[in-house]
């Protein structure tokens, strides 16, 4: 019975934290564009492909940044 004294307030506290996190995500627009990400997966865009050098190896981000600057 004494464990319920700790477990019930902890469960209520975790529920309140989860509710606040959900309300924060609603307020900040996390659910505004639900279909956009699903449709972007189907698009074939050039900038989505990995950058490959003349030998055929993938370039790291540092290589790309050094070539662009």
Automatic annotation (TrEMBL):
<protein>
    <submittedName>
        <fullName>Cytochrome C oxidase Cbb3</fullName>
    </submittedName>
</protein>
<keyword id="KW-1133">Transmembrane helix</keyword>
<dbReference type="Pfam" id="PF03597">
    <property type="entry name" value="FixS"/>
</dbReference>
<dbReference type="InterPro" id="IPR004714">
    <property type="entry name" value="Cyt_oxidase_maturation_cbb3"/>
</dbReference>
<keyword id="KW-0812">Transmembrane</keyword>
<feature type="transmembrane region" description="Helical">
    <location>
        <begin position="6"/>
        <end position="26"/>
    </location>
</feature>
<keyword id="KW-0472">Membrane</keyword>
């Amino acid at each position: 019975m004494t464990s319920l004294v700790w477990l019930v307030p902890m469960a209520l506290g975790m529920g309140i934290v989860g509710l606040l996190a959900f309300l924060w995500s609603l307020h900040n627009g996390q659910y505004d564009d639900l279909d956009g990400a699903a449709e972007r997966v189907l698009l074939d865009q050039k900038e989505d492909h990995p950058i490959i050098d003349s030998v055929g190896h993938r370039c790291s981000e540092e290589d790309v940044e050094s070539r662009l600057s």
